[in-house]
Amino acid sequence: MDFDWTEDDIAYRAALRRFLRDALGADWQGYKGLNPAAYKAAAGEFCRKMAEHGYLTQSWPKEYGGGDAPPWRAAILSEEIGSPHGEPRGSQYMNVNWIGPAIMQFGSPDQKAFFLPRISAGDITFSQGFSEPDAGSDLASLRTRAVRDGNDYVVNGEKIWTSHTAIAEWLFLLVRTDPDEKRSKGITVLLVPMDTPGLKVNQVLGFVGESAFSNPVFTDMRVPVANRLGPENGGWAVVRYALAFERIGVAHYRHAENQLNGLAREANARGLTDDPAVLAKLGEAWEAVEAARLLYFRVVDLRAQGSPPTADSNIARVAGTRAYQVVAEAADLILGEYSLGGSGRSRFNLTAGITSGATEIQLDQIATRHLNLPRPAVGARD
Ligand SMILES: Cc1cc2nc3c(=O)[nH]c(=O)nc-3n(C[C@H](O)[C@H](O)[C@H](O)COP(=O)(O)OP(=O)(O)OC[C@H]3O[C@@H](n4cnc5c(N)ncnc54)[C@H](O)[C@@H]3O)c2cc1C
Predict the structure, then answer these.
(1) Domain of 135?
(2) 232, 246, 257, 360: which one is catalytic?
(3) In this structure, are 211 and 265 located in the same domain?
(4) What pTM was estimated for this model as a whole?
(5) 356 C-alpha vs ligand 1 centroid, how far in Å?
(6) Which H or E element spans position 380?
(7) Which of 163, 314, 354, 365 to mutate to test the pocket of ligand 1 (most atoms within 8 A of CB)?
(8) Are residues 333 and 276 in the same domain?
(9) Which of 91, 231, 296, 303 is deepest in the core (most CB within 10 A)?
(10) Tens-digit pLDDT profile for residues 131-172
(11) How far apart are CA 173 and CA 118, in angstroms?
């Protein structure tokens, strides 16, 4: 087995680093402090530069504006774009990593023609309306109701913890179209413009940032049937497809590694490197980062061989979450209470075991799919 990068991959990474330095500036400090409009403009401008250089949708098929790049190129891009100061693409990573691919797989010709060129040019942004107050891990119990009325669906209900609504033009929305099918069989996906009458977005003040989350409420909101993605009551297949991409779309280990490097410098500066507890925790964090990297690479390798999604993505995801959590523990030891503020971002690390499907649910899926243990009695996200 050859663990080395090819010469082409090394040259690609070097060119990508040059591009990122030129596009963002060598001392990029993230989009902190920008209001939503300025943040959207800055992330949009960066995405358009990525699109011009062929990076934004490099992994998409050429027919949809992509570059047919192999999965290892996507892995290198995820690593290089990982920054201690945040995601320079803003929420655009979701469009590129899973919303676009879901539209390619399940979209009508009109939907493909409308959305895919706009996503691949960096001109459009989605938010993701999955979770509800009583449907998070058990997503299949969602209750937001859509009733067919002529050529429209009439939607009533609410979502919670929805990220990126302040900058999104579209909502990727899960609704219940068949109330008699209590679980996954009665669910449908709608693509909804954020300015649709009947859609009200309430902000949720949260621990990770004041406008990080929202609570979209739908009151008799009319959505054309033409905006349905995939068949009526066939939304679960779309969700499963999308979530399989979402799990390892971001190189969590690289974000954790960047934080860890900063913490090691901080430990040196504070004279803490003689403290065995600090050294042991830094070593444990490094081990967790490397374990996650190898498990992510395993999934990339499976993809490169054309394998469909397997439980390996869940395993990699759990390892990425563990890396975040051990790095947060190291931050706690080195920075004390300051670890939760400033550029440490370890507040975000605490959410890693919840977002995109809680760790316990990932572990359930590993138990049932990998170890062939009986399914748990309570429903899970997938
Ligand atoms: C940073 C962040 C961003 C997010 N962005 C979005 C977004 O853009 N759109 C969106 O739709 N949602 C978003 N979410 C919501 C996220 O998907 C949910 O928080 C997650 O699915 C868990 O659901 P819940 O919060 O309702 O917790 P619950 O499902 O109530 O779970 C609470 C606890 O119980 C445990 N638990 C639940 N069921 C089981 C079980 N069967 N077995 C073992 N343990 C179990 C969980 O692991 C967890 O620890 C975001 C969350 C975070 C933290």
Answers:
(1) 127-233
(2) 246
(3) no
(4) 0.90
(5) 7
(6) none
(7) 354
(8) yes
(9) 296
(10) 999 999 889 999 999 999 999 999 999 999 999 898 899 999
(11) 19
